Amino acid sequence: MKKHNFNPGPSILPKIAIENSAKAVLDLDGCGLSLLEVSHRSKEFQAVIDEAVALFKELMNIPANYHVLFLGGGASLQFCMVPYNLLQKKAAYLETGSWAHKAIKEAQLFGPVEVVASSSDKNFNYIPKNFTIPTDADYFHVTTNNTIFGSELRVDLDSPVPLVADMSSDILSRPVDVSKYSLIYGGAQKNLGPAGVTFVIVKEDVLGKVTRPIPTMLNYKTHIKDGSLFNTPPCFAIYTCKETLKWLKAQGGVKAMEEMDIRKSNLLYDAIDNSKMFVGTVEKESRSRMNICFVMKEQYKDKEAAFLDFAKGKGMVGIKGHRSVGGFRASLYNALPIESVQALIDCMHEFEKANA
Fold first, then answer.
1. Do 135 and 230 belong to one domain?
2. Lower Cβ count inside 10 Å, N or C end of the chain?
3. Domain limits at 28?
4. Is 273 a catalytic residue?
5. Bridge partners of residue 146, in order along the sequence
């Protein structure tokens, strides 16, 4: 049976990226050594990381005064590294979900944090609007896509202070004006690569302004100086990111990804909106293209477990909603083919026809 992978992360990857990474595990580009055993100081791996950085810069049109880093620790470590490196007097945050909340909690260890707006009052089912970014903040932090709750901020904000964004789950899904941001970060395992590596895009002039001493491994300047090779990096994960970026370029780049992501998400949202049984959980103007969250209408709530079993029998993987929201969540990352979206819709129609 064909599997349709809607997992929120670690998530689906392009088949060719998996295949090429598997080949590299046996022999890295004909060097006679496995990717898992080659030295990260070798010319063979240097070529890998150089290509990954170059592809990232090309696909995202990253300006020259920015650095691309591949680090460990996940986005969760960035919740700490960002304020460690940037927070001197005060930080400002937009609270739009669980990960934003966790980022705020970490930043509060380093100084005052102003939450300029929050959607917690409605269980994070919308993106706040009409908020004012304080001009006395050292930076303003946003989480562009909320994997758990299914909301997304697709606007590159004009900020009077350095703008920082967690783009873990929507990186490379739309064109981004990187010049409006001072720092962009994210775990790779949702739309770029496997678990184990974190990307950071950081503007040179935002660093070096805090007076506190920063531990070596938590200082962005350390990793800039050594090209992400200060210590042994997650070599396998970086290689797979490189292969995913190659695949993305071959598909037509970020703009082509955005067009396909719009098609896929519109297809599923239309099915939900026209359903007798299912209903979306996020305000329409805030809906994510990456993570589509929906539940059973009240009169069918008792059939949620039955639908999950039915869907599993049809090859649907990873559609159970997070416990904070319940119901269902379909993650439509770049590598997910539109055929899988249609298969889920057909599954929903079949179950509804038999049970509504």
1. yes
2. N
3. 15-250
4. no
5. 151
Query: Is residue 161 within 8 Å of residue 134, measured between CB atoms?
Result: yes
pLDDT tens-place string over residues 278-334:
999 999 999 999 999 999 999 999 999 999 999 999 999 999 999 888 999 999 999
DSSP string, 140-181: EEEESEETTTTEE-------SS-EEEE-TTTTTSS---GGG-
195 and 162 fall within a common domain: yes
Of 138, 190, 242, 320, catalytic: 190
Respond yes or no: is residue 301 known to be catalytic.
Answer: no
Residues 6 or more apart from 127 whose CB is under 8 A from it? Answer: 96, 119, 151, 152, 153, 285, 286
226 flagged as catalytic: no
Which residue in 135, 132, 140, 131 sits closest to 113, CA to CA?
140
- For tokens 């974190």, the residue is 198
- C-alpha dist (Å) from residue 155 to 82, 165, 177, 319: 21, 11, 9, 27
Nearby residues of 77 by Cβ (< 8 Å), 6 or more positions away: 71, 198
Q: Are residues 32 and 90 in the same domain?
A: yes
| Judgement on whether residues 27 and 101 belong to the same structural domain of the protein | yes
